[in-house]
Design a protein that fits this description.
Elements (H helix, E strand, L loop, with lengths): L4 E5 L3 H8 L9 E6 L3 H4 L9 E5 L7 E2 L3 H12 L4 E5 L2 H8 L1 H16 L3 E7 L6 H10 L7 H10 L8 H9 L22 H13 L5 H4 L7 H28 L3 H13 L3 H9 L2
Parallel strand pairs: 1-6, 2-3, 2-5, 3-4, 5-6
C-alpha cells in the first residue's frame, strides 16, 4: 500500500501499537513512529531498536517533535522525500484540541497529496468518538479506514512470549526476590561483553533494569545513536552506577532502621542519583 495514507481504529496508544504488528514490514527501509508517549513508555510496547520513535512534546531533548503543525509538516515532508518506509502517527485528536479541526485536516490533506507521490505509507491512529460525524467523514476521505481481521490481530499475541524484548526468566526472578516494601531487589546482572553487543541487546538490558525499578532515562537516549562503541561506553557507565546502587541498597536494607531515612535513600538509589553522597555517608568508615 505504498503511496497511501490510512486510518487505523484505536482507542489508545496500546491498541494502535497492536495494529502495527499486523502490518507487513519486511523489506521496509525505515519505520517511524510519532506519539504522545515518551520513549521511556514506548520501550515496553515497541522494539524501538527497529523503529525510530519521536515524542510529540514541548519538552527539549533527543527524539522529540514540537506539536506544531508547521514543524510536523517540515518533518514529514523531509521524511517521505527520501527512501521508502512506513510512518505511524498517534495523537491526531490531541493536535485537533490544540490547533482546531480545520488546521489539522488541512495538514492531513496536504500529507495525503505528498504521500501519493512517494514510496511511503502513512497510518494514523483514529478514535471515532473523538470527532463529530462530519469531521470523521472528512478524515476518512483523506485517510480511509484500515481494519484487521480478528485472526490477524491474535497472531502477534501468540508470539509475544518469544519477543526479543521480553525476558520472562528475569521477570519471574524479580517477582520472587522482593524487599519488605514489595519492590524488587536490585540484582547484579552479567556484564555484557563488547563482542556481539547490539542495540537490541542493550534494549533488553534496559528492560531488565526497568523491571527492577531503576531510572534508565540516562541510557535510553543512546538507543537513538548508530554508534555502537558510544552505546557500549554509555552502557558500561550506567552498569557501574547500578553496581554501586546494588551495594548501597543491600546496606540500607540491612542497617538503616529509620523509616524516613530508609525511604529517601532507597528512592535516590533507584533514581541513580546522589550515589557519591550516599557512599560517603554509609561507607566512609
Amino acid at each position: 500500500m505504498s503511496g497511501r495514507i490510512h486510518s487505523i481504529p484505536a482507542e489508545s496508544t496500546e491498541s494502535f501499537v497492536e495494529s502495527i504488528d499486523c502490518i507487513e514490514t519486511s523489506g521496509v527501509q525505515s519505520i517511524v513512529f510519532i506519539s504522545r508517549y515518551p520513549t521511556s513508555r514506548l520501550i515496553d510496547l515497541l522494539d524501538i531498536s527497529e523503529i525510530q520513535c519521536y515524542w510529540l512534546t514541548n519538552s527539549e531533548g533527543k527524539g522529540v517533535l514540537k506539536p506544531s503543525l508547521e514543524k510536523l509538516n517540515h518533518f514529514t515532508e523531509a521524511l517521505i522525500s527520501s527512501e521508502q518506509g512506513l510512518l505511524f502517527i498517534e495523537g491526531i485528536e490531541w493536535l485537533v484540541s490544540i490547533h482546531g479541526f480545520e488546521a489539522v485536516h488541512s495538514m492531513l490533506r496536504s500529507l495525503a497529496e505528498k504521500v501519493a507521490m512517494s514510496r511511503w505509507s502513512v497510518y494514523l491512529s483514529m478514535c471515532e468518538s473523538s470527532y463529530n460525524q462530519q469531521e470523521y467523514s472528512r478524515i476518512m476521505r483523506e485517510a480511509p479506514l484500515l481494519e484487521f481481521k480478528l485472526s490477524e490481530m491474535t497472531v502477534r499475541n501468540d508470539l509475544e512470549e518469544s519477543s526479543p524484548i521480553r525476558d520472562s526468566s528475569t521477570e519471574n526472578t524479580l517477582e520472587m526476590d522482593l524487599n519488605e516494601d514489595g519492590t524488587p531487589k536490585l540484582v547484579l546482572l552479567t556484564k555484557l561483553p563488547r563482542g556481539g553487543f547490539t542495540k537490541q541487546i542493550l534494549q533488553r538490558r534496559i528492560l531488565q533494569w526497568r523491571r527492577m525499578g531503576l531510572d534508565t532515562s540516562e541510557i535510553e537516549a543512546s538507543l537513538y545513536s548508530t554508534d555502537v562503541d558510544l552505546m557500549y561506553s554509555e552502557y558500561t557507565s550506567v552498569e557501574e552506577k547500578i553496581r554501586r546502587a546494588t551495594e548501597l541498597e543491600r546496606y540500607v536494607v540491612a542497617n538503616i532502621n529509620d523509616t524516613q531515612e530508609r525511604a529517601i535513600a532507597l528512592f535516590r538509589i533507584r533514581q541513580l542519583t546522589g550515589l557519591d553522597q550516599l557512599e560517603e555517608q554509609y561507607f566512609s568508615e
